[in-house]
Specification:
single chain; alpha/beta; 11-stranded mixed beta sheet; 5-stranded parallel beta sheet; globular
Length: about 700
């Protein structure tokens, strides 16, 4: 019987109408089939259960699930064999899986679950619940439509390869959106050859998702509609010294009973850190021009500062040692040649190859007896806050090719850093999933091809790391970028504010979990309802709220993050803004590229912004029962980015997924706390290492 659930090979494009009962799926399937002059597959479950009701007055049981699944797939396979264009399916096995788990306490027969995942559809049309509910012999849950719809949507988000479009509005609006979406699907599929589809499959992607990505390029991604910037008293909280200490004490009191993990994105190469040095190697010829003349002719302040401060960098001894190996006449060269050779030895693969190393492995800090990398400083710092009973757990996201170098570095420094901190360090790591890569297109939105005529796929940015973060099950997760470190002299101050953020989160969670238990176990009274609404408004920045317990529960029962925010000291950048979307205004972290700065009003809001995002985040990812949230359910898939790039001199457009702390956390509860600028010390260029926070005892 299990084999009967498998899709048979066919040449048609399959579109499935999918959603809760009484949302217009059957009507739409008929209308779409008529519009595109093709076939549609009726819902077998309705036929089967209606006959059972008419003849026996009995409702569905677990024993009916497999016969329904077999009947549905038999009808689908028979119809698919009769058309080579497009086939509209009124429900499928994934819909049956949702109903099975909903009615039978999470149970679904294994064969149905297996083929619900394996069977392939080019597009899911998810029908919303903003239409009237019509009773009949089989429909029985009019009061739980919102929860059931959430289950349907969750299943689509669970399987990242699924391409879906929500249908909401009037019947006419739904049909128009569906027709437009299907037309775009057909057009995009025409751009792909059989060879392309084979390449996509071998790459580990689905052709449905690739087609969806092409359509995203065609449609474009709308800019964020920022209403105003967050500011003190309007989304950003400034804590008194007493409250800071209160939250630190609260964290210290709780931490030994908590699972703590520090999550550190560390996959990026250091190439951009040395950009002005690469320019120097390209533009300067030491055999034709003196260094002083070169520096005076051009405008090279960063280069001048670097060359005049060489002895201050932590890597100077390593570079000089390599120079002695490769350039025995170095000391007898001109000043220009020595400078050129020094930079070349730093960056080129014949030397130390710094430009291709991950930033975490570049020597950052020069102590009296040794130099430390950002990787080592992250370990040292972790012991001061993300540590419980002398055990620290860190998770790094590496590029797979860099893993051996990080392992070697850890073996070389673990005894030193463990001895200094009296801490045992437990390191886990993961790679950015190749299946999160996205297709590149030409400026005309056609698939970009390399010199072999093959499709080109590119990493989709740090937003892809939400899948890595989703694999971590802990009470608190601290997120910090690999290059945002300080020397040991400043660590206690940085750690203090990490504890402040963590303590604030734990305090909020205590309140949230208390309210969720009230909402789930009893009917709250009017006083409790007012208290919960006040908490949502004042503590979680949720202003527009329907006054009912189910809404309160939904808003409270989600992941939470407490984010440190730093006051702007220069040009405004990515930071906290109030954003309008789908009629709701919420507090979000927004990158500059998401904002339409050509719009005078939007640009004025940016110019008035008082704070920016230093990526100083503490996350709570478990619910009030102790179960981990599925973070993939809280992404705003429309918050990605389209950027212009090039490959081998040819322009292309790249698609990035919603950023890890932007769209990937768009539907979390977000709290912003002001922290001092001293906690933010990233190394964007090599000269940042000359700042006092990166120079021990300065």
């Amino acid at each position: 019987m299990e084999e009967a659930l498998k899709q048979q090979p066919c040449s048609c494009i399959k579109v499935v109408l999918y959603g809760p009962e009484s949302t217009g799926k059957t009507t739409l399937a008929k209308q779409l089939a008529e519009h595109f002059n093709t076939l549609w597959v009726p819902e077998y479950m309705r036929e089967y259960l209606q006959e059972k009701w008419d003849t026996k007055r009995e409702r569905c049981t677990i024993d009916d699930l497999m016969p329904i699944a077999v009947g549905q797939m038999k009808a689908e396979n028979e119809a698919a064999a009769k058309t080579d264009t497009i086939l509209f399916c009124d429900t499928n096995l994934l819909e049956l899986k949702v109903y099975s788990e909903y009615y039978y306490n999470g149970f679904c027969p294994e064969p149905i679950a297996k083929y619900a995942k394996e069977n392939s559809y080019a597009l899911y049309l998810l029908t919303g619940i903003d239409v009237p509910f019509f009773f009949d012999d089989l429909r029985d849950r009019p009061d739980d439509r919102e929860n059931l719809f959430c289950n349907f949507e969750t299943q689509l988000n669970k399987y990242d390869h699924l391409n879906f479009q929500k249908l909401e509005g009037s019947k006419e609006e739904r049909l128009a959106i569906a027709i437009k979406t299907v037309k775009k699907l057909i057009e995009a599929k025409r751009m792909l050859t059989k060879k392309d589809e084979q390449q996509i499959e071998e790459y580990g992607l689905s052709k449905e998702k690739v087609v969806d990505q092409i359509n995203t390029f065609v449609d474009g991604i709308p800019f964020a509609d920022i209403v105003t910037s967050a500011s003190v008293g309007n989304g950003i909280e400034v804590l008194s010294e007493d409250n800071k200490q209160k939250f630190v004490d609260h964290f210290e009191e709780k931490k030994e009973h908590l699972d703590l993990v520090k999550f550190i994105p560390a996959s990026g190469a250091a190439t951009r850190m040395f950009k002005f040095l690469h320019n120097f190697l390209e533009l300067y010829d030491p055999e034709k021009q003196s260094l002083n003349v070169f520096l005076k002719k051009g405008n090279y302040p960063a280069l001048s500062r670097f060359l005049s401060s060489i002895k201050e960098f932590a890597f100077v001894s390593m570079v000089r040692k390599k120079i002695r190996e490769n350039y025995p006449d170095y000391k007898h060269s001109t000043k220009g040649m020595r400078s050129y050779v020094f930079v070349k030895t730093m960056l080129d693969k014949e030397g130390l190859n710094f430009s291709q190393l991950p930033k975490g492995l570049i020597p950052f800090h020069k102590y009296s007896k040794y130099a430390t990398t950002a990787f080592e400083e992250q370990l040292y710092e972790t012991a001061f806050y993300a540590c419980s009973i002398d055990e620290a757990y860190l998770h790094f996201t590496f590029s797979e090719k860099h893993l051996p170098f990080f392992k070697e570095e850890f073996e070389g420094i673990k005894n030193r850093v463990s001895k200094k901190t009296k801490t045992n360090f437990n390191i886990t790591y993961s790679f950015q999933d190749k299946a999160t890569d996205t297709i590149a297109v030409t400026p005309e939105n056609k698939p970009f091809r390399n010199e072999k005529g093959e499709l080109v796929f590119r990493p989709s940015g740090h937003g892809a790391l939400i899948k890595n973060l989703n694999e971590i099950d802990a009470d608190l997760i601290f997120i910090k970028n690999i290059d945002n470190v300080v020397t040991e002299d400043y660590v206690e101050s940085v750690a203090f504010y990490k504890k402040v953020l963590a303590g604030k989160l734990l305090w909020l969670q205590g309140k949230i979990f208390h309210y969720l238990r009230i909402l789930s176990e009893e009917k709250p009274n009017e006083e409790q309802m007012k208290e919960i609404k006040s908490f949502l408004w004042n503590e979680l920045n949720i202003k527009e709220i329907s006054y009912d317990s189910s809404t309160f529960f939904s808003l409270l029962n989600r992941p939470i993050r407490v984010c440190g925010m730093v006051r702007n000291t220069g040009a405004p950048g990515g930071g906290p803004y109030w954003v309008r979307k789908d009629g709701r205004i919420s507090l979000q972290i927004v990158e500059m590229v998401q904002i339409d700065t050509s719009n005078p009003h939007q640009k004025a809001i940016v110019n008035e912004a008082t704070h920016f995002n230093p990526v100083d985040i503490v996350c709570g990812v478990r619910d009030y029962k102790g179960d981990k949230f599925n973070l993939l359910n809280y992404i705003d898939p429309e918050a990605g980015l389209i950027s212009s790039k090039s490959e081998n001199g040819k322009p292309l457009k790249a698609l990035e997924r919603p950023g890890l702390w932007n769209g990937s956390m768009a539907n979390w509860n977000t709290v912003c706390i002001e922290v001092p600028i001293e906690t933010f010390n990233p190394v964007k260029t090599v000269n940042d290492l000359l700042n006092k926070e990166h120079r021990p005892s300065i």
